[in-house]
Specification:
Two copies of one chain form a homodimer. Chain A is elongated. Chain A has a single domain, classed as Orthogonal Bundle (Arc Repressor Mutant, subunit A), CATH 1.10.10. A two-stranded antiparallel ribbon of chain A has the order 1-2. In chain A, strand 1 and strand 2 form a beta hairpin. By secondary structure, chain A is mainly α. The two termini of chain A are about 20 Å apart. The first copy, chain A, has five helices and two strands. Chains A and B meet through helix 1 and helix 5 of A and helix 1 and helix 5 of B. Bound molecules: iron/sulfur cluster (2 copies). The site of one iron/sulfur cluster has 11 residues of chain A, from helix 5. The structure holds a DNA duplex.
DNA sequence: TTTAAATACTACTAAAAGGTAGAATTAAAA
DNA sequence: TTTTAATTCTACCTTTTAGTAGTATTTAAA
């Protein structure tokens, strides 16, 4: 019941850049301030660049910057990119074939939190991380 | 954002047995009705036996049965057993060092669904699966 | 024009989760 | 007492996720 590491890292990276949106950030800086292994970070950065969250500048004095305004990148966008989302139809037990007449003891209780989580991911953008300055 | 397969299977197995609590169930039957690979199922059954959810009878005419009343086994118990729980302190981004004065855009929104999920797992017992007869 | 400092690419290794194979053990039925 | 049908044990294989290594490419500064 958790996000995968790549998603977590990606959100932290993007949030940090959103919070310091004027400069260009290079991999060394990001790796050190966010405490993410350098090689793993560059791999994620390349994925974020390819999937158009980030614009990268190569060569000396290069680095990374956001590709669009902070309020146009939702957490859901990021999670989708790393196949780490919760669908409305998702069944906790991985069955999903039951209907109203025969459901397990979790079915109804799962509806509400699932909706809240979905809404949370859809309605939160990088803009909501601005000024937050949460640790690491 | 999902349970691991072993947990899911374990819950399905225990629920099924709870629903048919008079008989002894053997691995072949469980594997076939619940559509869980036989060898994987027996592995899980042995774990469930060792962790005292299940009492097994070995030898010919052997099988499995619940070790205690259906209302004394919560879903949380099962998840704990397979290291698949959500703790109240758990942070979505795996940081968890932030406090009230500096929190990210998800922190407050995560509180409510997390509580609901925890409550759901703690308050649901195998008894709540009785008579449900959900598919597979 | 060379060098330094950055990203990108290719390919691999490590750990965890998911799953399988085969033999050993147990105990009732034949 | 032998056979059969069940669980258990040990050891392995496969897939996915996480992470690392080394080299190639790019570009601006020196
Ligand atoms: S009833 Fe339970 S098992 Fe069936 S789809 Fe709903 S949550 Fe899943
Ligand atoms: S503020 Fe965000 S990152 Fe920090 S502990 Fe809360 S949820 Fe986790």
């Amino acid at each position: 019941m958790r996000l995968n590491n790549t998603s977590k890292y990606a959100i932290r990276i993007l949030s940090y850049i959103a919070n310091n949106n004027q400069q260009l950030h290079n991999a060394k800086e990001l790796s050190e301030t966010l405490d993410i292994p350098y090689k793993f970070l560059t791999k994620i950065m390349t994925e974020l660049t390819k999937s158009n969250f980030i614009i990268s500048t190569r060569g000396r004095e290069g680095g990374y910057t956001l590709s669009r305004p902070t309020d146009e990148i939702t957490i859901m966008d990021v999670l989708q990119n790393f196949n780490d989302i919760i669908y409305q139809k998702d069944c906790l037990l991985g069955i999903g074939k039951c209907d109203g007449s025969n459901k397990c003891g979790l079915h109804d209780q799962w509806v509400k939190p699932k909706k809240l989580i979905k809404k949370m991911f859809e309605n939160t953008t990088l803009n909501d991380f601005k000024g937050s300055n949460f640790k690491i």
